[in-house]
Design brief:
Strand content of chain A: under 5%
CATH topology of chain B: Phenol Hydroxylase P2 Protein
Number of strands of chain A: 0
CATH class of chain B: Alpha Beta
Helix content of chain B: 10-25%
Distance between the termini of chain B: 10 Å
Number of strands of chain B: 7
Radius of gyration of chain B: 12 Å
Distance between the termini of chain A: 77 Å
Oligomer: heterodimer
CATH architecture of chain B: Alpha-Beta Complex
Number of domains of chain B: 1
Shape of chain B: globular
Shape of chain A: globular
Number of helices of chain A: 13
């Protein structure tokens, strides 16, 4: 007996959603990222005027000085929608957990000489307060921003910052054998040590910045672009040279995360700057406004972390950021 | 002519889509035929999947070995490096 299995091929009439087809200009099947992003921004039929502003809608393009004809064009090169982002982060979390248990099992932090340990505690632990400010700032961008392409990415960034703050907290607990003395000392340093007041002032100024795109430039481009290379690259390299590789293991997530954060920020800046000369001038003006404050705030931290090499290391971070901005045509 | 053809069959799903698109872009001679659940891609002599092209489409790092997660069948001699996965028949 012969059994014939017939296959029937059904050709779909449309390969993607209409709004995605309108955006890409073709009816080719689109990525999940585009399908989860394009057309999601609420645009009309807002029933309630926000109490905080009489002349704005709840989602309003006028919340920033940047003007885009199509806000969806600020796409994320990492193509993170909720699913892709959570899968990527859970993989990274697995890696980070392994690193933490490796360091813990071998009591690697206990082997660090006391002076170096104190330096790690002083430089790294107050940064959890900076990360919390970064979390609030990115929440603000998510709340007042426009166009799901950028607001979904800022909201994910906000959650990433909470995760980073938690990793820093865990390192603080490990440094102190599970006690919270180091974290309490770091909090009082953040509140009253003159070395940290520049950065605290900068964080507080950002918390009251109204224009969400300006906040994006100040926090995600300028401050992160200087702070991350300084702490997680230069300081980490210095500790490696001193034979203390556990710091690099425990902060590997921050390093990996910063690489992709840079790709996203560069792309957003590049597209916004290419939109119009007005946008480019506005972005450049914001960079000029926040850059000197960030450099001044990081100087004491660089000195504390790297001693006499601190100034040179910060210079290198400034050069790295300048190169990125030039590539995104913001100058 | 016929014995010099190579082919690659990929599942028709979201993971394979960027691979198919990079093959389409990088191999102008490739002919793609859709079957239920499967795409068969035929090409004369050589068919290459470039890591860089796939990475540009998915926005993250991609290992050419990952093609096996969606690969259904293939024909040809495999030439594989860290940067590409190619099928050849000369």
């Amino acid at each position: 007996m012969q059994v014939d299995i017939k296959s029937l091929s059904i050709k779909p009439l449309r390969n993607t959603f209409d709004q995605v087809a309108r955006f890409t200009g073709t009816d080719k099947s689109a990525s999940r990222y585009l399908e989860a992003t394009i057309g999601v921004q609420p645009e009309t039929n807002f029933h309630y005027q926000p109490l905080w502003s009489k002349d704005r809608a709840i989602y309003d393009k006028r919340n920033t000085a940047i003007v885009m004809a199509d806000w969806y064009r600020l796409l994320d090169p990492r193509q993170y929608y909720y699913g892709a982002w959570t899968i990527a982060r859970s993989r990274q979390q697995d890696g980070a957990e392994r690193n933490f248990s490796f360091v813990e099992k071998r009591a690697m932090l206990a082997a660090i000489p006391p002076d170096l340990k104190a330096r790690i505690a002083h430089v790294l632990l107050p940064l959890r307060h900076v990360e919390y400010a970064a979390n609030l700032n990115n929440c603000y961008m998510g709340a007042y921003g426009y166009g799901v392409s950028v607001t979904q990415a800022t909201m994910m960034c906000a959650m990433d910052r909470l995760g980073i703050a938690q990793y820093i907290t865990r390192i603080g607990l490990m440094l102190d054998d599970g006690a919270d003395r180091a974290l309490k000392a770091a909090k009082s340093a953040w509140q009253s040590d003159p070395e940290w007041q520049g950065l605290r002032e900068l964080a507080e100024n950002m918390l009251v910045t109204k224009d969400w795109f300006e906040l994006f430039v100040a926090q995600n481009v300028v401050l992160d672009g200087l702070l991350y290379p300084l702490v997680y690259q230069s300081f980490s390299a210095e500790l490696n040279a001193a034979g203390q590789t556990s710091f690099a293991m425990l902060t590997e997530f921050m390093n990996e995360w910063f690489d992709e954060h840079v790709r996203w920020c560069n792309q957003v800046l590049k597209i916004a700057a290419a939109e119009s000369p007005e946008n480019r001038a506005q972005l450049a003006q914001w960079v000029r406004k926040w850059h000197p404050q960030a450099v001044a705030a990081l100087q004491p931290l660089a000195r504390r972390a790297l001693g006499d090499n601190g100034a040179a290391a910060l210079e290198a971070c400034v050069a790295q950021l300048a190169e990125r901005l030039a590539k995104s045509a913001v100058h | 002519m016929n014995e010099k053809m190579v082919f690659l069959a990929l599942q028709d799903n979201e993971d394979a889509r960027p691979i198919r698109e990079s093959i389409e872009a990088d191999n102008p001679l490739a002919v793609i035929t859709q079957y239920p659940g499967v795409y068969k891609i035929d090409a004369p002599g050589r068919l290459v999947v470039n890591r860089a092209s796939v990475e540009a489409r998915i926005g993250r790092a991609w290992n050419p070995q990952d093609i096996h997660l969606t690969l259904v069948s293939l024909s040809g001699n495999i030439d594989e490096t860290d940067d590409y996965f190619a099928l050849e028949r000369k």
